[in-house]
Design goal:
The structure is a single chain. By secondary structure, this protein is an alpha+beta fold. Strand 3 and strand 4 form a beta hairpin. 17% of the residues are buried.
Length: 206
């Protein structure tokens, strides 16, 4: 008799705790999928934000490298006014008939070498040149070299020289309006961002 009651109790307990119904299963799966979707969306947003931050760091690092290079050349050299206003020889042909110059020429301290900078096909290029023995022309030892990488798209590069005429030439020596330290204002548009800064030469022209 006791055994029969025990079996009946067990049977009753089993039937009084049934499993999930189909509706409950569907609701549980829907909630789980919604949770997974939210987590995935948050993860994707986080990855995109991290990639954007990394790209911005690379952009600013490359931009800083460009400006540091130009600053070092300008501050420790002299503006090559043959690039700005060529008299007998057109050394920087791209600068003809334009307001803001396309090519920047910087002489070293003894005037025997110069560095040229320009933009072409979305890159900033530079070239080192030496004055030939006659002193009338320039010879380059290597072709134009890139200063920026493929990841950076240079949309615009302009050099504004001040004063526009060479203050150290004999022709302009008595023009007081030109007698101040030459400077270069650089406008750089890279990957949609615009940067502008000005550097002054610390040495006198050659």
């Amino acid at each position: 008799m006791t055994k029969s009651k025990s079996l009946h109790s067990t049977f009753y307990i089993l039937h009084s705790n049934p499993g999930f119904t189909l509706m409950e299963m569907l609701i549980s799966i829907s909630v789980f999928m919604l949770f997974i979707g939210l987590v995935a969306s948050s993860y994707i947003s986080l990855v995109k934000a991290n990639n954007t931050a990394n790209d911005m760091q690379k952009l600013y690092r490359e931009t800083r490298n460009v400006f540091d290079t130009l600053a070092d050349e300008i501050r420790n050299g002299a503006i090559d006014y043959s690039c700005v206003n060529p008299d007998t020889d057109v050394y920087c042909i791209e600068n003809q008939n334009v307001g803001d110059k396309k090519v920047l020429g910087v002489l070293n301290k003894d005037g025997g070498k110069r560095s040229l900078f320009k933009e072409k096909n979305g890159k900033i290029l530079f070239q080192e040149q030496t004055r030939d023995p006659s002193g009338l022309s320039w010879v380059y030892t290597a072709d134009w070299q890139p200063l920026t990488t493929e990841k950076s798209k240079i949309e615009e590069l302009k050099f504004s020289i001040s004063p526009l005429k060479n203050p150290y030439s004999a022709v302009n020596a008595n023009d007081d309006s030109l007698q101040f330290q030459p400077s270069v204002t650089i406008l750089l548009k890279i990957n949609g961002y615009v940067f502008r800064t000005t550097y002054s030469s610390r040495t006198y022209g050659k």
